[in-house]
């Protein structure tokens, strides 16, 4: 059985858990604890370990989805999760510009030392005053070649679209065979 | 739809960059305690800015000594009756009360100073109303100005590392030119000290190394490079890790087979 891995990351409350829940075939394994720092101002329970979801591709192939902690003190987890991953989805809460700096830090961590295929998912596009993908590209200073995609993490079709767009990026960079 | 936030989290220079690169048209409303400001942009360029309510009308030109009260009354009467003119600026120029150059000069100096003062705000709510345009009585600049120089001058007034670190986490970062600065670089006016830093950017040296070479403090180099980054001229990147014996970067993502990726694509499409 071969397993491949995709990582879903982003700032606190960007929608990582919801994103994985929308597409996983198994009940998502979330190790959540009551937040003990300022994140509790944002939500009561925030991800402090990780989320895990799974999609069976075939009898011999499984896709694992890992949601990474969004808090600074869990930087060490990113290092472990990013080993051998196919690609990365960076989720951004499009309604909260105060999280854009943290999002840049996440992108920088994953991308600066590794040539990791990634896309940015502009989550919560169904909310009023959500910044558009084009505005987020400018706010995050991302080059044109990076896909910034509209997303509503609670909707399966939207999540599927983000994963497919990431897979197209991975496909372009994959080798024959 | 409005863009809403706080400049504590998304700085004014970042917002100006977004307006510029996004060719935005609209009004930026800023509020901090008792203070407020209103900036108008037309396709990414600044056309007007005011820090006070009474500066948002033609009265400003009287206060600046550029028009007499009688001239302003005459211009406003013409504005109300003449459908061919869209705003007060066109009336003033059309009636030859002021030349375009004089009006531009007077307004630009005032507007630029208004904006520079905003860079000193450590926080403040902002709301950008897309498509909002100034009232006809607002004395907009005849020639809208690009925001790069506003950013550069605003950044010159920053005197703390805290803000600089948003974009430059450490002085061990390498400075490199962006791939396509395009027309943007042409319009930026640099001070001599900034030129010294600019000339040392080679895509290899860190900020600390540049500071050492030109005998400036790391803070000064950081502040100057922060301005370049904010104006979209350069990027700062982490110093590449050393290569292995085979010449490949450490921790390179393994290449996957196309057939495997296609299998996953087909599965997810079918979900």
Walk me through this protein's architecture.
The complex is a heterodimer of chains A (177) and B (271). By secondary structure, chain A is an alpha/beta fold. Chain A has a single domain, classed as Rossmann fold, CATH 3.40.50.300. Chain A has 5 helices and 7 strands, in the order βαβββαβαβαβα. Chain A is globular. The two termini of chain A are 18 Å apart. The model of chain A has no long low-confidence stretch (mean pLDDT 84). Chain B is α+β, with helices and mostly antiparallel strands and 271 residues long. Chain B has 2 domains: 2-151, no CATH class; 160-271, Winged helix-like DNA-binding domain superfamily/Winged helix DNA-binding domain (Arc Repressor Mutant, subunit A, Orthogonal Bundle), CATH 1.10.10. Helices cover 43% and strands 15% of the residues of chain B. Chain B is built from 12 helices and 7 strands. Chain B has helices at residues 12-21, 59-63, 69-81, 88-94, 100-118, 148-156, 161-167, 184-187, 192-200, 207-214, 218-230, 258-269; strands at residues 2-6, 26-32, 35-42, 45-50, 125-130, 174-177, 234-237. In chain B, the strands form 2 sheets. A 5-stranded antiparallel β-sheet of chain B has the order 1-5-2-3-4. In chain B, strands 6-7 form a two-stranded antiparallel ribbon. In chain B, helix 1 (12-21) packs antiparallel against helix 6 and helix 6 (148-156) packs antiparallel against helix 11 (218-230). The longest helix of chain B has 19 residues, at 100-118. Residues 244-250 of chain B have low confidence and may be disordered. Classes of the chains: A alpha/beta (177), B alpha+beta (271). The A-B interface holds A 2, 4, 23, 55-58, 61, 63, 84-86, 97-101, 108, 112-117, 128-131, 134-135, 138-139, 143, 156, 160, 163-164, 167-168, 170-171, 173-177 and B 1-6, 8-10, 14, 17-18, 21-22, 166, 179, 237-238, 241, 249-265, 267-269, 271.
